[in-house]
């Protein structure tokens, strides 16, 4: 087994924090390296422990300012925000300031563990329920875009297909399973999609895609066999 995913946890409620520790340390590939309950603790853990993933409670006083500070000073620390309020404005602001993942405090331990693993690989993740709210908010409140060149015109048919699934909040692994492609191949396609759409992450790509009228896609040929091997 390779090196473990190193995780820092900052939550102002000791009982809830202990629950996160219990669920993460039960995994053989995850190690908790720092605990805290304040914004200052978050900075100290990021500076001294350099965890792969830093789990932060969105309700900690000063958390928003600290998120941006950590994202700028320690770009290798992936910040996972836990929210209980579902505040759309706060979530959007956090994603712009450097948060790499966002899940609700009422999530399952399985989603928590999988999200930590996803972020440790450099990917973004937003719970489908939260992503759906952000997409709905965007479609209602965002003004009509000014005429501009269609960024989507450069997407290949496969990239269009992957983008349509990415909007659902699926991880690279889940997209790969659905399309019978390797996770590495999906990651390559997603990177190309972000570059062509001129966005920084998957969430921005999903929000941008939600604002346009989807063009009709020609169905791709079905995989020949689930036993075939896909090379990246």
From TrEMBL:
Annotated GO biological process: phosphorelay signal transduction system; regulation of DNA-templated transcription
UniProt GO molecular function: DNA binding
SMART domains, per database record: HTH_LUXR (SM00421), REC (SM00448)
Residues in Response regulatory domain copies: 6-120
SUPFAM superfamilies: C-terminal effector domain of the bipartite response regulators (SSF46894), CheY-like (SSF52172)
Modified-residue entries (4-aspartylphosphate), positions: 57
Keywords: DNA-binding, Phosphoprotein
Domain HTH luxR-type: 148-213
InterPro entries: CheY-like_superfamily, NreC/VraR/RcsB-like_REC, Sig_transdc_resp-reg_C-effctor, Sig_transdc_resp-reg_receiver, Tscrpt_reg_LuxR_C, WalR-like
PROSITE patterns to which the protein is assigned, alphabetical: HTH_LUXR_1 (PS00622), HTH_LUXR_2 (PS50043), RESPONSE_REGULATORY (PS50110)
Protein name: DNA-binding response regulator
Organism: Microvirga aerophila
């Amino acid at each position: 087994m390779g090196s473990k995913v190193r995780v820092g946890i900052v939550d102002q409620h000791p009982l809830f924090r202990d629950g996160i520790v219990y669920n993460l340390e039960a995994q053989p590939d995850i190690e908790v390296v720092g605990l805290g309950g304040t914004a200052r603790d978050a900075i100290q853990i990021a500076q001294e422990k350099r965890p792969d993933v830093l789990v932060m409670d969105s309700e900690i006083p000063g958390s928003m300012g600290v998120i941006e500070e950590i994202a700028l000073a320690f770009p290798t620390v992936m910040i996972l925000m836990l929210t209980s309020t579902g505040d759309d404005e706060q979530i959007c602001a956090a994603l712009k300031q450097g948060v790499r993942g966002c899940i609700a405090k009422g999530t399952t331990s399985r989603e928590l563990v999988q999200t930590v693993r996803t972020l440790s690989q450099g990917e973004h993740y937003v719970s489908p329920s939260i992503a759906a709210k952000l997409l709905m908010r965007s479609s209602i409140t965002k003004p009509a875009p000014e005429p501009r060149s269609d960024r989507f015109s450069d997407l290949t048919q496969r990239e269009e297909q992957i983008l349509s699934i990415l909007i659902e909040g699926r991880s690279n692994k889940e997209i790969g399973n659905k399309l019978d492609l390797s996770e590495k191949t999906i990651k390559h396609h997603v990177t190309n999609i972000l570059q062509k759409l001129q966005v920084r992450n998957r969430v921005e790509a999903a929000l941008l895609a939600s604002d346009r009228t989807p063009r009709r896609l020609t169905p791709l040929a079905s995989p020949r066999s689930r036993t075939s091997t896909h090379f990246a």
